[in-house]
Design a protein that fits this description.
- The protein is α/β, with parallel strands linked by helices.
- It has two domains: 9-157, Rossmann fold, CATH 3.40.50; 170-309, 3-Layer(aba) Sandwich (Rossmann fold), CATH 3.40.50.
- The chain is built from twelve helices and ten strands.
- The protein has helices at residues 18-31, 44-53, 60-72, 95-107, 126-136, 141-157, 177-180, 189-195, 208-215, 225-240, 255-268, 286-309; strands at residues 9-12, 35-38, 78-80, 83-86, 114-115, 118-120, 170-174, 199-201, 245-251, 275-280.
- The chain has a four-stranded parallel beta sheet, with helices on one face. Strands 8-7-9-10 form a four-stranded parallel beta sheet, sandwiched between helices. A two-stranded parallel sheet has the order 4-6.
- Helix 1 (18-31) links the parallel strand 1 (9-12) and strand 2.
- The longest helix is centred in the last third of the chain and has 24 residues, at 286-309.
- The radius of gyration is 20 Å and the shape is globular.
Length: 310
């Protein structure tokens, strides 16, 4: 489908892979002359609407995604909801991302047209997918390529967070980007740890070579993009001693993360680095999460003092 608009409003949900590719998407569409409209940060109202339309057995972040799409649907001409199949060779995205455009069309009525172009590096370079996006928007391939160059520069130079909280403990956080960087979904965990003077490390602080080295020792490859990154990050935290402890944030309904947690648990048994898992869903109470985090930090501080006294 081709969309005919002189000045088009393109809606981008502030959910899902927005937290991975916002700089690229924002620069790309603005360079092409489109107005970009974002849904607001996740809140209780958006979640409630997402729960109304999303199927009950999909994961918490995906339910949030539905709420963001609903908020945008009457405010834009087109919704950018790409179908992500594979971001890396020999890897796949979660099936929910593959089926997200279809789930939205089946669940929410009166949606504007979806830019649901396939991104599958196993089949074709991303540039071809972006050219397809441009084709649907009646933009030439040459303009798409120029915009993409600037978009990639923005992506490489952007930093999501200042993770330095002070002189306190070094705490690692292992989680998918749309969990850790969505303040509502993560119970504002980064901000709350920084307020306590903690220094935070995530997968975004590690170069790919570090993660690949940790993954290489596993008997079988991990076929999920974010799953591999999370396991590699967790193993690095357990083996390197770079952090005083780390938290693993997963969604209750996430099948891949539930399985991959077993790998991390197994390796944690032979490490002296404290680690705990926080399972999140739409019923999670912030107070309960914070109580567990407080207890985890107290345990790390006690362990450090005991070791020092010995």
């Amino acid at each position: 489908m081709v969309y005919y608009h002189s000045i088009m409003k393109i809606g981008i949900p502030r959910a899902g892979l927005y937290y991975q590719f916002f700089p690229l998407w924002d620069t790309f569409f603005k360079e092409l002359g489109f107005e970009v409209v974002y849904s607001p940060p996740t809140n209780a109202s958006l979640l409630k609407k997402g729960l109304e339309y999303a199927h009950s057995d999909i994961c918490f972040p995906m339910k949030v995604n539905f709420g963001h799409v609903y908020w945008l649907k009457d405010k834009v001409d087109v919704l950018f909801v790409p179908r992500f199949i594979s971001l890396e060779e020999k890897k796949y995205m979660c099936p929910k991302f593959m089926g997200l455009p279809d789930m939205l069309k089946a669940s929410i009525s009166n949606l504007p047209p979806l830019l649901d172009v396939n991104f599958n590096i196993r089949k074709k370079p991303f540039i071809r997918s972006w050219i397809e996006v441009g084709k649907r928007l009646r933009v030439s391939a040459n303009k798409v390529k120029k915009a993409l160059v600037k978009a990639e520069i923005s992506q490489k130079s952007y930093q999501w967070n200042n993770l330095n909280g002070g002189d306190g403990l070094k705490i690692g956080i292992v989680a998918r980007p749309y969990i850790i960087y969505d303040k509502y979904v993560s119970a504002e965990l980064i901000d709350r740890l920084k307020e306590k003077g903690m220094n935070i490390l995530t997968a975004d602080n590690l170069i790919p070579e570090i993660i690949n080295k940790e993954i290489a020792i596993l008997k079988k490859p991990i076929y999920f993009d974010f799953g591999e990154k999370n396991v590699g990050t967790a193993l690095h935290f357990l083996n390197s001693g770079e952090v005083d402890g780390f938290l693993y944030l997963i969604s209750f309904e996430c099948g891949p993360d539930s399985l991959l947690k077993e790998i991390i648990d197994d390796r944690a048994r032979t490490s002296d680095i404290p680690y705990t898992t926080l399972v999140l869903d739409e019923h999670t109470e912030i107070a309960g999460i914070l109580t567990r985090v407080e207890a985890f930090l107290d345990m790390i501080e006690y362990k450090s003092k005991t070791k020092f006294n010995l």
